[in-house]
Each structure stands twice: as structure tokens, then as C-alpha cells.
Design goal:
The chain is of the alpha+beta class and about 600 residues long. It contains 15 helices and 22 strands.
């Protein structure tokens, strides 16, 4: 809908149910609303008066069987019957006809049917009819009225679809792609979207019809600087001016600035015969400009469409502003998260590697983290954790827990379970972290081996141990409650397991095994198979391949921490100099 007030609120009353009820009740033509089985669910007062039937007598009845009858009360033959065909096939149709009134007399009518859709699915029909069928002028007038009403309905539906589509993503590129699919070719042949950035004006999208000339998309990219003295339509709109409707005469004149020259060249290259340029956003904050162009002389934009496109520009501008704000917040959170992830030690002959993968564009930043550090007794501490939440607060909470856990682990030599118990007691006092999962583990043993793993698990996915013969086992011992439950009196337990030479220990967050549309068992089974197949790969390649084999669709960030246990001290494997030597691949039949 077009804006009608200077405060940018638009015709808010047109979104209120009471307004549409008022329109329905006071429309001069009769209206019947049918469900998907052609039964009447509502009629307006004009329909009651025209048909001499009460609403109570019509609601629930089959529209065709009730009204499409002879005066002798026999239904009209089903074939051929234009009304029945329109209703059963859910198509738009128009006919001069007659309906049977409640007094037994036939009422001459002109009726028009139209399907009612919701999310692309037909859920019913509307039938609009007038009793002036014998008056051709009245019939023509009704047709014009209905055509105008249909146009208004289509425009309202388009504005609603755009608002819904843009509200479903926080990714700017995806928002622009969705907008293009809705506007072309439904409202325009070509669309260009320009955004104001700190660097200047950028043409971020050029969208055309299927089978379009791809060279036209070369108009994307940085645009010349805004000229304060230019009177071109695009410059005025980017400065907060009103929407502009352009015909052939407005496109042809020579430009008065470099930016105007680019816009003129673009429209002429398209062969545009009519164009509309509207601001994105509100008068107080113009995010950019939206240009719609048509290339057919027979269908220029009209003033009603300019009003609609102006409203679309306002909606799109606000949505894109939100996506840009979210993108900046996401970049800050990712940078903070990456900077807080500690550099890994390389203790003795043990080899460590870690990876952090942000969530896909459009998803929010999480609180996943990994850590590894040497303890005062010579053991190597391993940490993997996940703070509940997906925002800057979660990333900040992750940083708090990481620092607290390091301090507690260094403070005294004690089992991992005791350290996590102390951390759990401190969390509600020192932080605002609501809930978190974490594994704290110690790799214990002399530099020449053997080594063992001692760990406790506070509600986190279990570690995965992959042996060099291609077997993979989840270490499900040592399970306890996640942090933040308040049940601090429930003591945690530790678990221990020997670490075979050349084995790989993998700690990870739930984004690695939880994929929308699949259950957790499927994800854990997939990870186990992939990790087993990678048992003989160098550690860095092992980590990269584990991430690369993730199925598409994950909506979470992922952290993983891997440890390669060296070969026995006889030197067949990792050398004393820390060089990771190749591992003989296991026979294929031994892979898990």
C-alpha cells in the first residue's frame, strides 16, 4: 500500500480486520465466500438482498446446487456449466447468467469467480455478482470494478509476500535474491538495487527475466559519487526524495552527473520504456534506491503501481537495514570469538590441531569454543564447550567460561570432575551464562608414553577415539549434568581410557553431528564412519576432511579439537623432533 502520511506509517487501517469486514458488508455487489469444497462460508448483506435469502439459509450449502437451478427447482445440467467448472477447477471466470432466488424466481446476474490462495495453495473461492445482468453498461461497469478490485488484491498480496519473504532471512544476499524472484516478472522486467555504504553507492543487484542477457548484470558494482547539484531522478531519490515515475522522454535526456550517466546508460541498454525509482527505507534513513524497469511500450507503470512500489521500497529498506546491522554484529562476534580462541601448545611428541567454522550466512553466531594448555604437573588439558545461545552474549559468555576454567585448572592439581564442579558453582555468581556444556580432559603420561585420557563430561557430545586400524569409538563414560542447572550437590565423575599409539582423539561441538532434518544418531554414525576412514591421514588433513564431509544444511557453528598420539618410543611413527610420519593405512575390511 502507498504511504499516505509523512511519518511513514502508511495506511495502517488497511491492515486491520475490521476495515475489510466493513468493505465486505458495504460492497454494492453480492459476495459469497466458499471453502475448498464449494460450500458457502460467508455472504454479505448485498447477496442476501439480491437473492432474497438469509445468510443463515445459505451458509453451509453447496453454492452451485443451491443457486444454479431452474425455477422448477431442478438443478441445471452439470455439463456444460461454466459456473461449476470455475468452482471445481478453482479458476477465474465471468458470465452473464441467473441465480435462483429464495422466492422461487430467477434473478438475472453477472457473476465473477476468483480463487482464494494461501501460501500458494487454493483454499476456496469468492463469487462476486450483481443483479443488473440485462443492463450491459452495468455489466461492463461491474467488470471494471472487479478488475480494479482484483488489481488491488494482487498488489496487497505482493506487498505481503515481500514482507514475509524478507522477514525470513537475516542474510542480505538472500534477501535481495528473494526480492528479485518476487518482482521479476510479476511487476517489472528488470530490477536494480543500489545501497548507500561507507565507501559510497554500490549497485548490489541487477535482476532480469529468465534467459536474460548476462552482460546486463555487468552494471553491478561501485557507482560514481553523489553529486549534490544533480537533478537526476536517482540522485534525488538517494537524497531522500519522493518516488519518481519515468517515461521514454525522461529516460532519453542527457545526464547531468557521472552517476546519472550510469543510470541513463543502464536504462537505455535494457531498452526500458517505463521506469520507477523509489527510495529504500524511510525519509529519516535512506538505505538506497530501488529501480524497476519495463521494456514493453504497451504496459507502462501507472500512479497506483508507483504507490505500491514506494511501499515496497520502504519495506525492503527496513529489511535490508536489519540484515546489514545483523551482518555487522555477526562480524564483530566472529572476530571476537576467533581472537579469544587460544593458540594450541605442542607438548612434547603429542600433536594438536583445532578448527572453528562459523555458522552459515544468515544464521547467528554461537558460543562454541576449544582450548588446550599445559598444567603445572606436566599434563595437557583439553577443553571443548558450548554456551547456550546464538548472539554476542553467547560469545562473551564463552570468553568468561574459558578464562575461569583456565584459572581453576591451573590453581590446583585435581581431577577434571572437581574442577568442573567448582566452575559450575562459580558460573551463576560471576557470569550471566544460563547454560553451557563442556568437556575437560587431561592427557597424562611421560613423553615416551604410554598415555591415558582422564576426563569428565558436563552434558556435551562424547569424545571420539579413532585407532590407527580404522576403528572409531565414542567415549560415553564420565557423563554428568551440564553447567548452570543449579544442582551443584550432584558430584561429577571422571573416566579414564588408554590412548593407543598413533590413535586420534576428537573433541567437537554439536554442530558437527546435528543437521536439520536428521536425527542425532544419524549424525553421530556419519561422523564415526568418516573419522574411521581418515584414521591414517595427517592430523591437519584429518580435521579439514571431517569438516568438508559435513552434509549441507547445518545451521550452527562448529568447533573441534583433535590430538594425535605419537607412535611408541621405538621411533616407528612420530620422531623425537616432532615430525609426524605417515601411518600405514589399515586394511579396508578393518574400517568401522
Amino acid at each position: 500500500m502507498a504511504q499516505s502520511t509523512s511519518d511513514g506509517q502508511g495506511r495502517w487501517w488497511a491492515t486491520q480486520p475490521a476495515f475489510w469486514q466493513e468493505v465486505f458488508d458495504h460492497l454494492g455487489a453480492g459476495v459469497a465466500v466458499l471453502d475448498s469444497s464449494e460450500r458457502i462460508i460467508a455472504v454479505n448483506p448485498a447477496a442476501e438482498e439480491l437473492l432474497n435469502r438469509t445468510a443463515a439459509a445459505m451458509i453451509g450449502q453447496d453454492f452451485h446446487d443451491l443457486l444454479h437451478r431452474h425455477a422448477g427447482d431442478a438443478t441445471l445440467p452439470d455439463e456444460p456449466c461454466r459456473l461449476l467448472t470455475a468452482l471445481t477447477r478453482h479458476v477465474r471466470a465471468r458470465e452473464v447468467d441467473s441465480f435462483l432466488g429464495g422466492d422461487g424466481f430467477l434473478v438475472p446476474v453477472t457473476w465473477i469467480s476468483d480463487p482464494v490462495t494461501r501460501n500458494g495453495e487454493v483454499v476456496g473461492m469468492t463469487v462476486l455478482f450483481t443483479g443488473d445482468a440485462t443492463d450491459r453498461d452495468a455489466a461492463v461497469g461491474l467488470a471494471a470494478h472487479v478488475t480494479a478490485l482484483e488489481g488491488l488484491t494482487d498488489r496487497l498480496a505482493l506487498a505481503t509476500e515481500i514482507a514475509t519473504a524478507l522477514a525470513q532471512t537475516l542474510d542480505t544476499e538472500e534477501a535481495l535474491a528473494r526480492l528479485g524472484r518476487l518482482l521479476v516478472p510479476r511487476l517489472a522486467d528488470w530490477v536494480a538495487i543500489d545501497l548507500r555504504t561507507e565507501e559510497g553507492v554500490q549497485r548490489v543487484a541487477v535482476i532480469g527475466p529468465e534467459g536474460r542477457d548476462a552482460e546486463q548484470e555487468a552494471w553491478q558494482g561501485p557507482l560514481p559519487a553523489l553529486d549534490e547539484h544533480s537533478r537526476s531522478s536517482l540522485v534525488r531519490v538517494l537524497h531522500g526524495g519522493e518516488p519518481v515515475l519515468m517515461g521514454p522522454g525522461d529516460i532519453a535526456p542527457p545526464p547531468d552527473s557521472p552517476l546519472a550517466a550510469v543510470q541513463t546508460g543502464f536504462l537505455q541498454a535494457l531498452g526500458a520504456t517505463s521506469a520507477v525509482i523509489v527510495p529504500l527505507g524511510t525519509v529519516r534513513r535512506v538505505t538506497g534506491a530501488l529501480t524497476l524497469a519495463r521494456t514493453g511500450a504497451a504496459r507502462p507503470f501507472d500512479t497506483a503501481e508507483v504507490a505500491l512500489i514506494g511501499d515496497i521500497g520502504r519495506r525492503v529498506g527496513l529489511a535490508i537495514d536489519n540484515t546489514l546491522r545483523f551482518g555487522r554484529q555477526r562480524q564483530i562476534a566472529e572476530a571476537m570469538q576467533r581472537n579469544l580462541l587460544a593458540a594450541l601448545p605442542q607438548p612434547g611428541r603429542l600433536r594438536l590441531a583445532a578448527r572453528y567454522q562459523p555458522a552459515p550466512a544468515g544464521s547467528q553466531v554461537g558460543g562454541d569454543w576449544y582450548d588446550a594448555f599445559l598444567l603445572r604437573d606436566g599434563a595437557t588439558a583439553l577443553v571443548i564447550g558450548d554456551v547456550i545461545g546464538h548472539d554476542l552474549a553467547a560469545a562473551a559468555g564463552m570468553a568468561q567460561l574459558e578464562g575461569m576454567l583456565r584459572a581453576l585448572a591451573w590453581d590446583r592439581t585435581e581431577p577434571p570432575s572437581a574442577i568442573i564442579d567448582r566452575l559450575d558453582q562459580a558460573v551463576p555468581v560471576i557470569t550471566k551464562v544460563p547454560l553451557a556444556t563442556v568437556i575437560l580432559a587431561r592427557i597424562e603420561g611421560p613423553d615416551e608414553g604410554p598415555w591415558q585420557l582422564r576426563w569428565t563430561n558436563a552434558g556435551h557430545p562424547p569424545p571420539l577415539l579413532v585407532t590407527p586400524d580404522g576403528r572409531a569409538e565414542y567415549l560415553e563414560q564420565g557423563q554428568g549434568l551440564l553447567l548452570g542447572t543449579g544442582l551443584n550437590d550432584v558430584g561429577r565423575t571422571d573416566a579414564t581410557v588408554p590412548l593407543p599409539p598413533r590413535s586420534t582423539l576428537l573433541l567437537y561441538t554439536d554442530g558437527l553431528v546435528e543437521v536439520p532434518g536428521t536425527d542425532l544418531d544419524t549424525g553421530m554414525g556419519r561422523l564415526r564412519r568418516h573419522a574411521a576412514a581418515l584414521a591414517c591421514h595427517p592430523l591437519d588433513d584429518f580435521c579439514d576432511q571431517v569438516l568438508a564431509r559435513m552434509p549441507p544444511g547445518t545451521a550452527d557453528d562448529i568447533a573441534l579439537l583433535a590430538v594425535r598420539i605419537p607412535a611408541a618410543s621405538d621411533g616407528r611413527g612420530t620422531s623425537r623432533h616432532g615430525v609426524e610420519e605417515p601411518v600405514t593405512p589399515p586394511p579396508r575390511h578393518q574400517l568401522w
